[in-house]
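#lab-general

N.A. 3:47 PM
ok so I finally got the sequence cleaned up, no stray characters, all 296 residues accounted for. can someone with queue access submit it? mine expired

B.Y. 3:52 PM
send it over

N.A. 3:53 PM
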Amino acid sequence: MSLQYLLSDLVHWNMQQQQLVFSPTPPSRKAVRQIRSHLVPTSSPYTISVDGHVTTQLTLHFPTHASPPDMITYQPIFYTLPTLTHWEFHFSSTKRRNVPYLSLSQLRLFWHHYWQYINLHTPGPTDSVPRSLTYPQSFWQHFWRLSLPHKALTPWWRLLQHCIATQQKRHRFQLQNVDDSICSLCKIEEEDLKHMFVSCSTKRPFWRAALQYMQLDHIFPTQDLVWQALTTFMSRHNRPLSDNDLRRLGCIVAVLWQHHWRCKFDDQAWITATVFHTLQSDLFYASFVPHIPISG
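B.Y. 4:20 PM
back already:
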């Protein structure tokens, strides 16, 4: 039975008879009717498998005219409904939990299309699977505690979620007036997320100047290390970056995001001096720059 259909689409709980009974009215959805048609009308137990994760034995009954009418009972609901404690979800080869004790968020996560990658914390087979799905909960807790500049929060979050309309994505979606997936700034390479943020040759001079201004150039000598920091919060040798370093990186992301879309929407040229001036003249961004003590 597919996860997109509930057991309640097919049966209901008869409190008087204490059993699951097929609904007398045929389901309105064709797909549900097809599922029901494959179940033989008998009282023998059925093995219901949900995408290979849940296996249980249930006795399903068809209503008959000889069945006694339902009687109104005033028993508490937890006395009349099946406990379903024998239904289990397998989170790993060693960890499993009974369905009644799962939270709604755990169930939603389990039903996710990329559950296997989320569960194993491994990247998917293609770039279409956002790496963010494999991040542990501690990663997101760290992200929301960073106190990033407001203008950096949205673009960084959208980067992690792969929710940005890059030229590559717009071309793949076959949108009108999108002839190819080439970056409109450098006009050389395909614009994916990495190219848009760190790899574009047109934006590279700004990155060099911004990293030096924010005193991050010794931490990120290459653009690949910048990309690693943006997507994993790690520096070289997979060492965790400090919150201060990530906040300063967020200031650069905020300015880059602002001018990127000005070039797109307002048809402005990317001028490195202008973009860098936006970063340098903003007093809030400047407050993140470490002050070098003056000896004397």
